[in-house]
Design goal:
single chain, 400 residues, alpha/beta, Arc Repressor Mutant, subunit A, nine-stranded parallel β-sheet, five-stranded mixed β-sheet, 20 strands, elongated, WHD_ROQ1-like, LRR_dom_sf
Length: 400
C-alpha cells in the first residue's frame, strides 16, 4: 500500500500549481459531479479547467464516466491528507465535520478557507458565528446542501447579532435553509456563477442593480417568504431560474428576459404570482412551469424552443396571440382553466399533437357527443395530424 501511495504522490508532485488546485477541488467538491458543472465553476475560479481536467485524466488521477468526474478512493484520501498536512493548504478546503465544527464555532483559521462542503442530512448541530464568515476573505465555494432524496437533519444556529458578510470571491453559493431574511447589504455577486438558497427564510436577495456577468443559476425553491427578485437585467448569462413553491412571490420583473438567455423557468405553486409577462418572442427558453399559479390571469410568454407547455390549474383567462409563434409546441395542458373559447391561433400550431382539457370549462359545459364536433369545428383536429384530446372522461385519439 505504501508503494502505491508513493506512486500516486509522484503523480501529484508532477502537476503544475494550477493542476494541483483543480485536483484538490475535485477531491473535495466535485467527485461524482457532472463534468460540465465542475468545469464551469473551476473556470470561474481562473483555473482553466477544460485543459486541466484533461491532464488529470491523462495521468489517471481522475476518470470521466457518463460525463461525471470520478476519483479513486485512494486518490481522494491522498488529497484529504495533503490539505490536512501541508501548512500552506491546511484548512483551505473543509469537508470533515470535526474541522468544520472547529472553524465555524471557534473562528480558527477562517482566513485561509477557500471552500466548505457539508451534507446537511447528517444529524449534527452547527453553531455559526457571523464573524467567522466575515474572516473568510478567500472563500470561493460554500455548499451546505441536502442530497437529493434525503431529509435535512442538521441544525444550524446563528445566535449572535453580528452581520454575516460573505467573500466577494464566491463563485458557488449553496445554503439549504439559509437563516436570514436577506443577503448582507454589501453582498457582491460579481463573480458568482450559481446561488442556491432553497427552503430558506429570505424575503429578498439584495436591493439595487449588481454586475452579474457570470451568474447562470438562481435557485430559491420553497422560499415561502420570498417577496420579490432583484433587478437581473445585468445577468447576461442567466440560464436557470428555480422559484417553485415561493408562496409570497407576487411579481417577476421582465428584465429576466432582456438578454434572452433563460433556458428554464420554474414558478409552479406560486399562488400570488401575477406574471411572468414579456412581449418579446424568445429563442432560448425551453422549459417553463406555471402549474398552480392561481393569480396568473394572462400568459404572454412565447419561445421558439418550447415543446411542452403546462398552464393547468392557473387563473389564466386570456391567451396572448404570440402562442401562434411557438412552432415546436407539441403538448399543451389546459386542465382546470375557466376558458369558454380557445384562440383560433392554436390551429396554427402544426406540431401540436396532444391537448389536455380535463375539467376545463370548454369541455365540462359540453355533452360528450359534442366534444369531437366542437374541436373539429374550431380547426384543432387537422387532417394532417394524429391528434390526442384528453378530457376528464376519456382519451380520444383522432388519426385523421
Amino acid at each position: 500500500m505504501d508503494e502505491i501511495q508513493e506512486v500516486l504522490q509522484v503523480s501529484y508532485n508532477g502537476l503544475t500549481r494550477r493542476e494541483k488546485e483543480i485536483f484538490l477541488d475535485i477531491a473535495f467538491f466535485f467527485e461524482g459531479e457532472n463534468k460540465d458543472f465542475a468545469t464551469t465553476i473551476l473556470d470561474a475560479c481562473g483555473f482553466g479547467a477544460t485543459s486541466g481536467i484533461q491532464i488529470l485524466e491523462d495521468k489517471a488521477l481522475v476518470s470521466i464516466s457518463c460525463n461525471r468526474i470520478q476519483m479513486h478512493d485512494l486518490l481522494q484520501k491522498m488529497a484529504f491528507d495533503i490539505v490536512r498536512n501541508d501548512q500552506r493548504l491546511k484548512h483551505s478546503r473543509l469537508k470533515d465535520i470535526e474541522e468544520i465544527h472547529h472553524v465555524l464555532k471557534n473562528n480558527k483559521a477562517a482566513d485561509v478557507v477557500e471552500g466548505i462542503q457539508f451534507d446537511l442530512s447528517q444529524k449534527e448541530n452547527l453553531h455559526v458565528k457571523a464573524e467567522t464568515f466575515n474572516t473568510m476573505v478567500d472563500l470561493r465555494i460554500l455548499r451546505l446542501y441536502v442530497p437529493l432524496g434525503k431529509k435535512r437533519l442538521a441544525i444550524l444556529s446563528h445566535s449572535d447579532k453580528g452581520i454575516m458578510q460573505f467573500s466577494d470571491k464566491l463563485r458557488y453559493f449553496e445554503w439549504n435553509g439559509y437563516l436570514l431574511k436577506s443577503l448582507p447589504h454589501h453582498f457582491c455577486a460579481k463573480l458568482l456563477v450559481e446561488i442556491h438558497l432553497p427552503h430558506s427564510n429570505v424575503e429578498y436577495l439584495w436591493h439595487g442593480i449588481q454586475e452579474l456577468m457570470n451568474l447562470e443559476v438562481i435557485n430559491l425553491s420553497e422560499c415561502k417568504d420570498l417577496i420579490n427578485l432583484p433587478d437581473l437585467s445585468q445577468a447576461s448569462k442567466l440560464k436557470w431560474l428555480y422559484l417553485s413553491g415561493c408562496e409570497s412571490l407576487c411579481e417577476i420583473q421582465p428584465s429576466i428576459f432582456s438578454k434572452d438567455t433563460l433556458v428554464t423557468l420554474l414558478v409552479d405553486r406560486c399562488p400570488k404570482l401575477e406574471g411572468p409577462k414579456n412581449e418579446k418572442h424568445l429563442r432560448t427558453l425551453q422549459k417553463i412551469n406555471v402549474y398552480g399559479c392561481s393569480s396568473l390571469k394572462e400568459f404572454s410568454l412565447s419561445s421558439d424552443s418550447i415543446e411542452n407547455r403546462d398552464i393547468s390549474n392557473t387563473g389564466v383567462e386570456i391567451f396572448h396571440s404570440s402562442i401562434s409563434g411557438m412552432s415546436k409546441l407539441g403538448w399543451l395542458n389546459l386542465e382546470g382553466l375557466e376558458l369558454s373559447n380557445l384562440p383560433n391561433k392554436l390551429s396554427c400550431l402544426e406540431l401540436l399533437a396532444e391537448l389536455q382539457v380535463s375539467y376545463c370549462d370548454i369541455v365540462t359545459k359540453l355533452k360528450l357527443e359534442d366534444v369531437q364536433y366542437f374541436f373539429l369545428s374550431q380547426g384543432f383536429l387537422s387532417k394532417s395530424k394524429c391528434f390526442v384530446l384528453k378530457t376528464a372522461l376519456h382519451w380520444s385519439p383522432y388519426p385523421l
